[in-house]
Structure formats: structure tokens, C-alpha cells
């Protein structure tokens, strides 16, 4: 009997420990409760309810998961109300649920996540996509779908891919809409694009068609035609309907919808034809779920469950995987010895005098461990790999890009956070290195609103009655470029005519008004005028605006319509007259080097010829005259002395070639000097100005002042000049009389100045390359279109005709406006002199080596005869005697003497032979006589 009671007691203890309210580390509860809260009759809620119920069945039928524990999901309808959703979530906190699947609404998620943090109950939402539901602020809120942060990044990359710069965002004005658009704004800004207008619509059910029409009428008056719609399905369809009524779904518009539309298209397809007609050409994003056998099997099962009444969308798949995520985490929780127990919250017990019964809500003790297991879960679900990143977002975010066409829709590409836009499924790219280069971004062709296959430009000139405020400088000098018509706000001049002609070429009207800038007493600062575009004071600036670096940092310029660059203008004098003009072809340095080389070559030839040539011998005075005469006579190729040595002839040939080049160059330069008017200025250009300390003039308001300071010229040397008359006066006075040595200004001004000022010329080269353009705000489409118009003006000749109309020149300007020097400098002949010098050096080296060889032979002979080496003075005397000794008694005539001696010996032998033959008959005759 005792044994029987003990057995019964054990069974009772086992039953109590497994009822879900208590237990030990080795037992599992029979039932574990999970809450579910969303709107049952919404587009997402209808499919999510079925998906959750089927997931619960699959989990409970899986013997390898939750072994012996039944998963129960208690569903509660929030009825599309943020308030009811929050109340329903609070009710779950009074029960024994260990997690809540939901909420569906981002608005509810924001408020209830504070309760989840306090009571340590994880909330797993398959539909709340608000990117500001931060994992740091709400650690117990887990998003089991993709955040709108990625959806908006995909949208921004689509905008960048097609080259658009500005978009208009229409959104529901709650946490879901505002925070999603904020994420879009950040993503666009990272790509140098922006939201030009945000149109919020009330999230309440009381929004009427008239309210939407008021919003869209304002949108239609804007410049951008790229519209991003981020709303809930009922409001989204109302926007499309009103936009279709207002003609905003036609040619030129681009509509990009977030994934609210694909959730409807996937679950309610086919839609009525009237709904499809109002959405033609819309681009839509859809959360990408890779194809798999499990997904296809579930889709087939889904059709049987629903009877084809509504389809399967991505949110249903995420809801299904969320249930499995909870099951996997609970299984790990129980395996680690976790128990389901709750404890009272002392903070709630301290609240007195309340009928809300807040003390019924308790803290889930196992919440931290369950949350840890949820974050560490890693399995393959219907949506693909189900795993969390360190920031608690799902791995591998990706979207399909859908184009609504005809009675259906087609996929034109994919976006993934891994590789951007592509026409290949993202899962096929994960095995390759990520490549987000612009050339790798691809989409299929799109049919845009209005049945247009050409990419829309994306903007039009706004038709809101607002005129562009175009800033124009009030110039007090060079009024041919820009000048205000007295008594009006109208302007005339070269720049104004170019702007007007370019605007007339645009395919749309550009209403504008010119706004004067400046005090009328001095030229305004163009940099300050350009900066007013960034503050909104001007919508553009027209005038003689130079395109320079510091201005391009804040605004965009059109294509340059006039070439410009800084030049130096200075006084000059004519140099082709005077008794000493014949010296001008060569610089002083050149004349000096020529003189030195004439003497040097004469000395070298004398040295090489002195021992072997009688013409280079004689008394010292005669030899000096010979050197001078020989050197100078080679200038005219009239030297009488012949060279007999090989070295001397080599040096002379090279020198005569140098003299030929010098003579030819001198003749050509002198001819040019006497036949062409030559101008001279001590200033050669910017570099020569920098080397002096003389004052330099510049035009008031020009960027020349800043440029000169940047290259190191002190500000104390710079003199501001306000008109061409001041230019002329300051240049004529010169630095000594309170004027300037030169003026630095842009070429167009200087050319106009020189058209009636013949006493000055441009010196040196243009040292900056820039142009004049019209300035507009950053990324303004008007700057691009006007650039095209300016190129058209240039190609058809209109730009040149406008130039000739305003900037025609007088006869003075027909002269050469630039100073050019015809002097020949040493650097032009350095190679010739170098060759000649090297030849002389080599010849002298060979000559002295020969002398030293003879000297050693002579010294050796003297040492043998005298028996001593001799003194230093005697050796020097021997060396000098060898240098001065005439060479005709030595080796030069030795061969001649040998030849003469051999010839004389042969003649003597011949004579003796003839004599002997003569004597023989005489002797014989004598013998005969005797």
C-alpha cells in the first residue's frame, strides 16, 4: 500500500511539473503558449493567419522538434487599429505567453516594444518594417521580415541607375510612412540625389478623395516626375485612381511603389481591370524569396487550402517561418534547461489607485535565454536562409523589381544588398565576389506610364506660376558683356543674348525674371553672387561668370559659352629702329659666348698647327695677330691660313659648321627685325612679375585677386582697378608714378580693352584655362539642358554672330596683340657650342698626349747621354722646346728623306753602271793596243 501511494504521488508531481506553469530543468511542459496579434481582414493579415495556423500544425506534427510539447498560438485581431493592437498586446502580457508573433503595425510596435522590454517577452513581427525599430532601443523586438531600410536603398539605387536626381515622396503620415521616407532620403543623399518634395497624407480612415486630390495637384506643379509611393493598400489605390484622373499616370511620369502593392498583387491576383488600368507602367518592389522545393510544395498546398480565393505573398511566407523560428528557439531553450516561469514586476505593484489591474502583468523569467536562442537560430525556411545579422536584421536582404503591364506584371530584375541591381537571382551571385560597379548594374527594359519604352527624363519645368529668379551683376565697366537698361530690371549685352538664345532652344518655357546684384558703383563680387544660389536667393546666375574651382564646389555650371583665362597686359615700345638695331638678333649672353668661342677656337687651332704649319709660326706678336685674324676670318669663311694637321682640320670643320648655323640664324632674325614691327616689354609674363616687387592691377570683383594671392604675390602689391580707363591710366603712369607695372585680367576683358588701346599688349602666355558659364543649383536639370543648347548655338554659328555683334574690334586690334621676342638666346645654340667645345677638348687632349710621349722619349735620351735625370727647370725647358719646335726636322719629314735617299741611291747605282760599261771597251781596246 505504501508503495502504491508513493507511485500515485510521483504521478501527481509529474503532472504538476508539466502543466506549463512550473517544472524542473529536465522536464518539458505539455503546452507552450505563444500570442499572435495582427489584423485578420487586411491584405497581409488574411494570408498570415492561414500561414501561421499551417505552421503550427507542421511544427506539432514534427516529432524531432519540441518533443512532447505542444505549441499553441493564440491569435487576436487588432482590427486595423493601433489602439486596439496595443490593448491586445497588453492583454497577452496578463497571460502565460512566452512570445508574441506580431504586431503587424509599425505604429503598435513602437509603443508595445517598451512593454516587451520591461516584461522580457520577445515580439517577433513579420510585417512591421519601420527602420527606426532599433535593436538597441528595443532589444526584445525582432523583425522577421526585411526592414524598409533595404527597400529604400533599393529604390535609391533604381533612381541612380536611371540617372535621375530628384524624386517626390508620397507617404502615409505615421511612423511607418515617415520613417520609411526618411530612410529613402538618406539613401538618395548618399548617391547625390534628393527628395525635392514630401507629400504626407493622413493615416486615418477618414481620408477622402478630395484630400488626395489636393496633395496630387501640388505634386503635379513640381519639377520632378519621379514619384515614390509608400502607403497602405487602400490609400495607395486611392492615390493611383486620383493620379490617373489628373493625367499623372501618362507619358513622362515615373511611379515607384514599395512592397505594399506586390502584397496585394500576389494575394489578390487577378485584380479587377479598372484597378490594373490605373497602375500601368508602375515599378514595384517585392521581398525576394528564392525558389525551392519546400516553397513550391507549400504553394501547391496553399492553393488547396484557399481554393484559389487569394494567393500567397511574401508576408505569408515570413509569417510561416516566424512560427518555425519560435519552435526552434523553444526547443533549444528547453534543451538548455530553461523553464517557463513568471514573476511579479515590483514597478507595477507600486502603482496604486488604478483600476487597470496592471499587477496582472508579470515578467517572463526565461525571456533573456529565449531571446538569445531566437537570435542564434539558423535554419532554412520557405523564405530561404533564416538567420540574424549582428544588428538583429535578417541576412541577405533582396527584392524583386516588378513592372505592371497590361493585365499582369513581369519581373525586370532583382536588387540585393550584396551586389545591387541584376537580372540574375541574388542567390546565384552569393558564390561570386560582390561587384557593385556601375557596369555590373543591369535591369531588363521597362514599359513606363503612357506605354512608353524610352526612359523618361524624370523632370519638367515646374508649372506652378513661379518665375525663376536669375541673378545678374550690375557692371560698371565692360558693359558690352552685361548692362542694365536704365529704369528697368531688364538687361542687355553679350552674356544676356547668349542666355536668351539658349533658353529659346529649350523644348519648354522657362519663365524667369532678372534680379540685379550690386551697388552700381563698383563691380560686385561674383563669388558672393554665386553663393546666393545655395541660400535660395537666386535660382541661377547669368553673366560673365568664370568657372573656377571654389565656385564649382557649391553650384553647377553649364557648358562654357566663352573661352577665358588670365593674361598679363603691359606697356611696350618698338624696337625695330635705331643705330644699334643690328645687335638685337642675339642676346647679350649669346654675343659674349660667340666672342669667347671665336678666341677659344683660334687658340686651339694655333696650338694644334704651331709645330707643323709655318703659317702659325714666327714672332709672338705675329702669332697673336694670326690667332685673332684666323678666328674672325672664319666668320666669313675668308681665312687664308691652311691647316695641315689632322686634329686641326677636325676642329676647324666642326667650327665652320657652327659658324654656318650662327650666320644663317643671325641673317634670318635680322631680316625679321627690320621687316616686322617688333615690340618690347621688360615684363615677359607672370613669372617675371612674381620676381619683382612692383604693383599689379586687377579688375574689381574678378577671381584674379584670389588667384594672384594663392600663387604667392603679397596682397600689398595688388591694386584694384574698376574700369578700362583706370587700366590705361595706371599702366601709363607705371610703378614709379603711382601706377602699375602690369594688369592681370581675363582674356575677354583684355581683348576688348586692347581693341581701342594700342599702347599696350599681352605679354607671355595665358596661364589659366577656364570659361564663362551660367550657374544653377546643384544637380539642376536646367544646367544640363542649357549646356546642350549652348553647344547647338556654337555649332550653328549663332554664338559667333552674337560675339561679333557685341565685341567687334577696331583697326588697332588687328595688330599682333601679343608681344613676341625675335631675339635668339644661348639656349637655342647650346647643343652646337657643346659639340664644338667637346671636339676642341678631345683634339687638345690627343695633341698633349702626343707631346708628352715625345717628351718622355727626349727626357730618356738626355738621361742616357748625361747620366742624370736633370733639374725641374731643365725638364720644363725641354717640354717647352718640344712644343715650340718645328716638326719638319723630325717625324714629318723622315719619310720624305727616306724616299729621297732611296731614289738618290738608285740613281747613283744607275750612273755607276753606265760608267762601268763605258770603261770596259776602253780597257779592252787598250789591251788590244798593248
From TrEMBL:
Q: How does it sit in the membrane?
A: Multi-pass membrane protein
InterPro entries cross-referenced by the UniProt entry: ANF_lig-bd_rcpt, GABAb_receptor_plant_PBP1, Glu/Gly-bd, Ionotropic_Glu_rcpt, Iontro_rcpt_C, Iontropic_Glu_rcpt_pln, Peripla_BP_I
Q: Which terms does the record give in the GO molecular function aspect?
A: ligand-gated monoatomic ion channel activity
Per the record, which residues fall in region Disordered? 886-930
Q: Which residues cross the membrane?
A: 590-608, 650-676, 829-849
Question: Taking every annotated instance into account, which residue ranges of this chain make up the domain Ionotropic glutamate receptor C-terminal?
Answer: 469-809
Query: Which Gene3D superfamilies does the record cross-reference, listed alphabetically?
Result: 1.10.287.70, 3.40.50.2300, Periplasmic binding protein-like II
Q: Which domain of life is it from?
A: Eukaryota
Q: Which residues form the signal peptide?
A: 1-18
Q: Which cysteines are joined by disulfide bonds?
A: 758-812
- Protein's cellular compartments: Membrane
Keywords (alphabetical) are:
Disulfide bond, Glycoprotein, Ion channel, Ion transport, Ligand-gated ion channel, Membrane, Receptor, Signal, Transmembrane, Transmembrane helix, Transport
Matching CDD domains: GluR_Plant, PBP1_GABAb_receptor_plant
The primary site where this protein sits is: membrane
Single GO BP term: response to wounding
Q: Where is the composition biased (Basic and acidic residues)?
A: 911-921
Q: Which family does it belong to?
A: Belongs to the glutamate-gated ion channel (TC 1.A.10.1) family.
User: PANTHER family this protein is in?
Assistant: IONOTROPIC GLUTAMATE RECEPTOR
Query: Would you tell me the protein name for this molecule?
Result: Glutamate receptor
Give the organism the record lists. Nicotiana sylvestris
The upper taxonomy is: Eukaryota, Viridiplantae, Streptophyta, Embryophyta, Tracheophyta
Task: Give the encoding gene's name.
Answer: LOC104234467
Amino acid at each position: 500500500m505504501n508503495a502504491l501511494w508513493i507511485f500515485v504521488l510521483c504521478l501527481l508531481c509529474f503532472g504538476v511539473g508539466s502543466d506549463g506553469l512550473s517544472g524542473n530543468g529536465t522536464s518539458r511542459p505539455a503546452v507552450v503558449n505563444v500570442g499572435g496579434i495582427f489584423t485578420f481582414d487586411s491584405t497581409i493579415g488574411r494570408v498570415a493567419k492561414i500561414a501561421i495556423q499551417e505552421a503550427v500544425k507542421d511544427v506539432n506534427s514534427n516529432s524531432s522538434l519540441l518533443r512532447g510539447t505542444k505549441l499553441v498560438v493564440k491569435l487576436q485581431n487588432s482590427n486595423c487599429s493601433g489602439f486596439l493592437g496595443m490593448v491586445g498586446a497588453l492583454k497577452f502580457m496578463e497571460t502565460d505567453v512566452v512570445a508574441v508573433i506580431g504586431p503587424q503595425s509599425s505604429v503598435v510596435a513602437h509603443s508595445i516594444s517598451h512593454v516587451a522590454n520591461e516584461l522580457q517577452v520577445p515580439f517577433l513581427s513579420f510585417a512591421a518594417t519601420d527602420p527606426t525599430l532599433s535593436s538597441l532601443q528595443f532589444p526584445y523586438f525582432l523583425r522577421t521580415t526585411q526592414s524598409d531600410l533595404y527597400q529604400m536603398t533599393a529604390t535609391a539605387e533604381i533612381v541612380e541607375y536611371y540617372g535621375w536626381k530628384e524624386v517626390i515622396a508620397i507617404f502615409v503620415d505615421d511612423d511607418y510612412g515617415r520613417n520609411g521616407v526618411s530612410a529613402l532620403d538618406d539613401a538618395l543623399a548618399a548617391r547625390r540625389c534628393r527628395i525635392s518634395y514630401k507629400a504626407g497624407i493622413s493615416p486615418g480612415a477618414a481620408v477622402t478623395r478630395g484630400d488626395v486630390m489636393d496633395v496630387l495637384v501640388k505634386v503635379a506643379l513640381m519639377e520632378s516626375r519621379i514619384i515614390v509611393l509608400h502607403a497602405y493598400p487602400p490609400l495607395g489605390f486611392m492615390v493611383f485612381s486620383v493620379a490617373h484622373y489628373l493625367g499623372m499616370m501618362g507619358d513622362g511620369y515615373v511611379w515607384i511603389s514599395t512592397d505594399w502593392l506586390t502584397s496585394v498583387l500576389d494575394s489578390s491576383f487577378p485584380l479587377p481591370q479598372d484597378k490594373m488600368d490605373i497602375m500601368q507602367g508602375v515599378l514595384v518592389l517585392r521581398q525576394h524569396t528564392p525558389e525551392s522545393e519546400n516553397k513550391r510544395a507549400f504553394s501547391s498546398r496553399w492553393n488547396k487550402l484557399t481554393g484559389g480565393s487569394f494567393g500567397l505573398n511574401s508576408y505569408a511566407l515570413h509569417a510561416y517561418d516566424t512560427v518555425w523560428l519560435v519552435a526552434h528557439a523553444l526547443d533549444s531553450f528547453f534543451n538548455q534547461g530553461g523553464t517557463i516561469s513568471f514573476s511579479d514586476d515590483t514597478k507595477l505593484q507600486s502603482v496604486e489607485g488604478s483600476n487597470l489591474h496592471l499587477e496582472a502583468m508579470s515578467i517572463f523569467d526565461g525571456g533573456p535565454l529565449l531571446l538569445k536562442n531566437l537570435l542564434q537560430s539558423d535554419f532554412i525556411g520557405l523564405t530561404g536562409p533564416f538567420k540574424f545579422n549582428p544588428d538583429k536584421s535578417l541576412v541577405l536582404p533582396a527584392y524583386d523589381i516588378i513592372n505592371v503591364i497590361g493585365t499582369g506584371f513581369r519581373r525586370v530584375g532583382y536588387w540585393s544588398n550584396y551586389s545591387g541591381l541584376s537580372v540574375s537571382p541574388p542567390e546565384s551571385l552569393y558564390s561570386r565576389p560582390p561587384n557593385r560597379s556601375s557596369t555590373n548594374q543591369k535591369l531588363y527594359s521597362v514599359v513606363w506610364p503612357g506605354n512608353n519604352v524610352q526612359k523618361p527624363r524624370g523632370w519638367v519645368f515646374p508649372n506652378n506660376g513661379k518665375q525663376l529668379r536669375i541673378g545678374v551683376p550690375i557692371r560698371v565697366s565692360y558693359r558690352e558683356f552685361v548692362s542694365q537698361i536704365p529704369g528697368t530690371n531688364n538687361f542687355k549685352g553679350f552674356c544676356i543674348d547668349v542666355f536668351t538664345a539658349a533658353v529659346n532652344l529649350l523644348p519648354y518655357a522657362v519663365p524667369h525674371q532678372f534680379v540685379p546684384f550690386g551697388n552700381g558703383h563698383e563691380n560686385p563680387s561674383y563669388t558672393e553672387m554665386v553663393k546666393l544660389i545655395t541660400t535660395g536667393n537666386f535660382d541661377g546666375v547669368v553673366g560673365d561668370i568664370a568657372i573656377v574651382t571654389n565656385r564649382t564646389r557649391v553650384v553647377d555650371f553649364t557648358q562654357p559659352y566663352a573661352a577665358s583665362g588670365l593674361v598679363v597686359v603691359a606697356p611696350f615700345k618698338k624696337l625695330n629702329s635705331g643705330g644699334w638695331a643690328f645687335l638685337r638678333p642675339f642676346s647679350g649672353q649669346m654675343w659674349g659666348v660667340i666672342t669667347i668661342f671665336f678666341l677659344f677656337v683660334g687658340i686651339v687651332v694655333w696650338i694644334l698647327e704651331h709645330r707643323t704649319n709655318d703659317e702659325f709660326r714666327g714672332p709672338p706678336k705675329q702669332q697673336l695677330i694670326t690667332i685673332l685674324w684666323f678666328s674672325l676670318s672664319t666668320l666669313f669663311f675668308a681665312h687664308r691660313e691652311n691647316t695641315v694637321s689632322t686634329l686641326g682640320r677636325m676642329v676647324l670643320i666642326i667650327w665652320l659648321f657652327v659658324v654656318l648655323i650662327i650666320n644663317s640664324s643671325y641673317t634670318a632674325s635680322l631680316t625679321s627685325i627690320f621687316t616686322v614691327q617688333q615690340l618690347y616689354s621688360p615684363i615677359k609674363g607672370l613669372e617675371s612679375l612674381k620676381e619683382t616687387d612692383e604693383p599689379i592691377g586687377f579688375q574689381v570683383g574678378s577671381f584674379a585677386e584670389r588667384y594672384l594671392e594663392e600663387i604667392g604675390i603679397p596682397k600689398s602689391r595688388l591694386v584694384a582697378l574698376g574700369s578700362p580707363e583706370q587700366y590705361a591710366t595706371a599702366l601709363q603712369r607705371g610703378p614709379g608714378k603711382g601706377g602699375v607695372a602690369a594688369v592681370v585680367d581675363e582674356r575677354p576683358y583684355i581683348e576688348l580693352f586692347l581693341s581701342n588701346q594700342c599702347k599696350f599688349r599681352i605679354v607671355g602666355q595665358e596661364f589659366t584655362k577656364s570659361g564663362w558659364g551660367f550657374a544653377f543649383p546643384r544637380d539642376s536639370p536646367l544646367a544640363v539642358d542649357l549646356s546642350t543648347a549652348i553647344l547647338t548655338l556654337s555649332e550653328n554659328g549663332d554664338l559667333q554672330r552674337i560675339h561679333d555683334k557685341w565685341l567687334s574690334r577696331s583697326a588697332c586690334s588687328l595688330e599682333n596683340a601679343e608681344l613676341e621676342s625675335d631675339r635668339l638666346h644661348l639656349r637655342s645654340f647650346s647643343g652646337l657650342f657643346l659639340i664644338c667645345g667637346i671636339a676642341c677638348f678631345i683634339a687638345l687632349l690627343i695633341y698633349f698626349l702626343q707631346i708628352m710621349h715625345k717628351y718622355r722619349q727626349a727626357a730618356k735620351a738626355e738621361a742616357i747621354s748625361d747620366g742624370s735625370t736633370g733639374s725641374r727647370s731643365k725638364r720644363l725647358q725641354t717640354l717647352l722646346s718640344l712644343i715650340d719646335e718645328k716638326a719638319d726636322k723630325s717625324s714629318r719629314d723622315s719619310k720624305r728623306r727616306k724616299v729621297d735617299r732611296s731614289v738618290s741611291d738608285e740613281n747613283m747605282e744607275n750612273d755607276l753602271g753606265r760608267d762601268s760599261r763605258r770603261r770596259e771597251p776602253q780597257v779592252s781596246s787598250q789591251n788590244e793596243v798593248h
